[in-house]
Each structure stands twice: as structure tokens, then as C-alpha cells.
Design goal:
Structural class of chain A: alpha/beta
Largest sheet of chain B: 6 strands, parallel
Strand content of chain B: 5-15%
CATH architecture of the largest domain in chain A: 3-Layer(aba) Sandwich
Largest sheet of chain A: 6 strands, parallel
CATH class of the largest domain in chain B: Alpha Beta
Distance between the termini of chain A: 42 Å
Radius of gyration of chain B: 21 Å
Largest interface: A-B, 35 and 38 residues
Order of helices and strands of chain A: EHEEHHEHEHEHHHHH
Number of domains of chain A: 2
Strand order of the largest sheet of chain A: 2-1-3-4-5-6
Number of strands of chain B: 6
Mean pLDDT of chain A: 83
Distance between the termini of chain B: 58 Å
Shape of chain A: elongated
Radius of gyration of chain A: 20 Å
CATH class of the largest domain in chain A: Alpha Beta
Low-confidence stretches of chain A: 65-74
Oligomer: heterodimer
Number of domains of chain B: 2
Strand content of chain A: 5-15%
């Protein structure tokens, strides 16, 4: 990509106010060709700027490996997605990056960061996080991630179920649940169930 | 400014910390002919569109400042992602005139600005929904709220009693009432529900209470 080439940017955001703001801000860049899209799935662009949910939907519809059932999707290049969102929980950021999002910006990020991210991603770069998202993401090293089973346990724990109740719902023994809860407490560095509930809500570790 | 010719124009100023929402609001309002978007320094403003924390600060400042003669006070319209019933009520209590959630449409934004400029109040449909929820929910008393905050830190009844200088039995009674008011059967469930309603802030469970007594 040469210095002067035009970058086509497709913008689609669920919030009309943010949508209008994104279009107005990006239109100021002379080398951006901004398309305000009503349908994010149609057409192609160098970079797609969108909200969290649309991004996840878009990436789920175009899997990285070509073994998707839909042959027409297989031939399309995987879109380069930049997320613009208010979702600032480390669990959400980790999930987005894991799904193949190239750029992740919180709405508190300076518009200059967004422009930077779009250029970076258009060049083929990956993993552009705004300063605050990067700080949040780095604060959770992989060894502290909860396993799928621990997440199951956590979901019931947060609702207030006791170990026995969780055991019945997951069809495992109460002792196994106890071990999971102990491990969850250890990973979250807390000592009580109440603190687990607070931490899990605060850090977005349970999906609503 | 040559006001008379545009007597019906509404002067709006934007003080929103989110640069994308701020730009979006300005762009949307400018596309309609009855709004003038201008910085507050440029003269009298009818409506200030703002975010939650800025709005709360300004509302508090307006409430305490002495009224200077006939000077017009701009009405505050909050556009925020804060959608917990109690947070919206706190804003209305503080003197905010209008409340929109951030996923509102362009039309709703324009309606809200007109409404607030006309001296009326405006709650978006989803905000009204949340506020109405709070009207039918029982509210913990100040003391129960203190107990709830300590519960959220994972303290047991005995320790809460020691911190608040009351007996364990009294704490137990408070906890029982809290669970009943929140419609939950366990402590953990009550904490999650309190966060959902906006009674507790997940980031700062001890928001207004001392950390150690």
C-alpha cells in the first residue's frame, strides 16, 4: 500500500449518535473514503469500524478457516474489523481479540487514536488497542483466565446458588464445585463468594 | 447576535466527555434548522447536552450558586450509558431536566432538546421504564445500605456488627430485611441484584462509607 492510496472505511454503529460522530470525524481525513453502511455484511472495504455486537456477528459469519458451511462466505477475505465500544471489561476485550477483531477502541479514546488504528489495520497490522483497553487487557494474563467449567460454576454462584445447588444444576458432585470455587477465588485473588460476585460483575467475567 | 429573526431557534451547547457522541450530537442537531450549536462562551444557551458525571456536577453547582437576577439557567439534558434506575433518579433529583440513553435515535434527541428547552422534562422510553421500576421496589434504609456495602466486601455478620458498633443479631435482622427487599434468598444473590438496580457500584462497593472504622 502506497503512502497516498485511499483507505475505504465502512462505518456501522448501533448507536445513531456514535454513528453520526464517527462519520463526521472520519470524513475529515483526506485519505479516507468513508461509507456509512446500513448493512455491514454487504460489499467490501479495507477496514470496517463498528460496535461490539456487530463486530462479533460479522466475524462469526466469516470464520478464519475455510471450513464454513457456506461456500460463498469462504471466498471472501476476512474483514479487518475495528471495534468502537463502551465495553471496557477485560473479559469482553479478551473475547473480542480472541474472535479476530483487529482493533479495539473504547469511546473514551482520542479520535486521533481511532485514525491511527484504521491506518494500522489497513496496512495489515493487527491488534491495535487504545491505551486504556491495552492496560485492561494486559492486566489479565492467560493463567488467570477461567476455564469453561469454572465459568459455568461462576454463573450460578453469582446468582446466589450454594455449592449443593450448583452441583445439582451442573450434574457434578458438591466437592467438585467446592474445588472449582476455591480455584476461582484463587484466580480472582479474593476470599469470599460475595467478593467473587462483585469482581465477576465488575470485570465482565459472566456473560449475561 | 441577531436574535429576533430566529426567535424560535434553540441554542444548544455540548459538554460531553465522549468525543464520538459529542461530535455525533453536534452533527445531528446541526442538520436540523431549529437548533444552533455553539460553545457556552458565545452567549446565552437554552440547553446543555452533557454526560452523566458532568451533568451531575453542573446540576450541583447550579443548585448552590446564587441566582443572578434574571439570568437564564440552561436546562441540562444527560445522554448517558448509565441505565440503572437509581442512577437516573439521582440525576432527576439533582435537577437534571432530561435523560436519554446513548442508543437513542436522532429524532429522540431532537425531541428531547425541544422539550427541555420548552421548560418541560424528558425521559426516553427506556429511561422512564427503569425509573418506574424503582417506584415499585422497596428501598433499603440508610443503615441497611451500610450493611449491604459491607456484605459486598465479603464480611460476615459478626465483623459487620463490630464495624458498625451493633450486635450480630441486629446485623442479622438487617440482612434478612435486605434480602427480602431485594427479593433474593442469598447474600451473593442480593449483591448481584443491588448492582443491577444501581444501588451498589460494582467498581466501588464502599462508595460513601469509610474503608476501615
Amino acid at each position: 500500500m502506497t503512502q497516498n492510496s485511499i483507505i475505504s472505511v465502512r462505518v456501522r454503529h448501533a448507536d445513531p449518535l456514535v454513528m453520526a460522530g464517527l462519520v463526521a470525524l472520519l470524513d475529515r481525513e483526506p485519505d479516507f473514503d468513508v461509507q456509512a453502511a446500513s448493512d455491514i455484511h454487504r460489499g467490501c472495504a479495507d477496514v470496517v469500524v463498528t460496535d461490539y455486537r456487530s463486530a462479533m456477528g460479522l466475524l462469526a459469519a466469516s470464520p478464519e478457516t475455510g471450513n464454513g458451511a457456506d461456500a460463498s462466505l469462504r471466498d471472501l477475505p476476512r474483514p479487518r474489523v475495528v471495534v468502537m465500544t463502551r465495553q471496557d471489561k477485560e473479559g469482553e476485550i479478551a473475547q473480542a481479540m480472541h474472535s479476530g477483531v483487529r482493533g479495539y477502541l473504547l469511546q473514551s479514546a482520542d479520535p486521533l487514536e481511532l485514525v491511527d488504528a484504521i491506518r494500522h489495520v489497513a496496512r495489515g497490522g493487527s491488534h491495535y488497542l487504545c491505551n486504556r483497553a491495552a492496560a485492561l487487557f494486559d492486566s489479565c494474563p492467560p493463567r488467570t483466565w477461567l476455564t469453561a467449567r469454572e465459568e459455568d460454576v461462576l454463573r450460578f454462584l453469582v446468582k446466589g446458588d450454594c455449592n449443593k445447588g450448583i452441583a445439582r444444576k451442573l450434574d457434578i458432585s458438591a466437592n467438585t464445585v467446592k474445588a472449582h470455587v476455591a480455584r476461582i477465588c484463587e484466580k480472582l485473588h479474593v476470599r469470599s463468594r460475595a467478593q467473587v460476585a462483585i469482581q465477576a460483575t465488575q470485570r465482565g467475567l459472566v456473560r449475561a | 447576535m441577531t436574535a429576533p429573526a430566529h426567535a424560535l431557534r434553540i441554542n444548544v451547547s455540548i459538554a460531553h466527555h465522549d468525543p464520538y457522541v459529542a461530535t455525533g450530537i453536534a452533527a445531528l442537531l446541526r442538520s436540523s434548522t431549529d437548533f444552533t450549536v455553539q460553545p457556552e462562551s458565545l452567549g446565552e444557551v437554552d440547553v446543555v447536552v452533557t454526560d452523566y458525571s458532568t451533568g451531575m456536577l453542573r446540576a450541583a453547582a447550579t443548585a448552590t450558586a446564587p441566582r443572578r437576577g434574571a439570568a437564564k439557567v440552561a436546562s441540562l439534558l444527560i445522554v448517558s450509558e448509565q441505565d440503572r434506575g437509581w442512577q437516573i433518579r439521582r440525576a432527576v433529583d439533582a435537577g437534571v431536566r432530561g435523560y436519554l440513553l446513548q442508543d437513542c435515535s436522532a429524532n429522540e434527541l431532537a425531541d428531547a432538546v425541544r422539550c427541555v428547552a420548552g421548560g418541560r422534562r424528558y425521559l426516553s422510553r427506556s429511561a422512564a421504564d427503569r425509573v418506574l421500576d424503582t417506584l415499585v421496589q422497596s428501598v433499603p434504609t440508610a443503615r441497611e445500605f451500610e450493611v449491604l456495602q459491607h456484605m459486598a466486601c465479603g464480611l460476615g455478620n459478626k465483623n459487620i456488627g463490630r464495624l458498625l458498633g451493633i450486635s450480630e443479631g441486629t446485623v442479622k435482622t438487617h440482612v434478612k430485611t435486605i434480602l427480602a427487599k431485594l427479593g433474593e434468598q442469598t447474600r451473593t444473590g442480593a449483591i448481584t441484584e443491588a448492582i443491577r438496580r444501581g444501588l451498589l457500584d460494582a467498581r466501588r462497593p464502599l462508595a460513601d462509607a469509610p474503608l476501615s472504622a
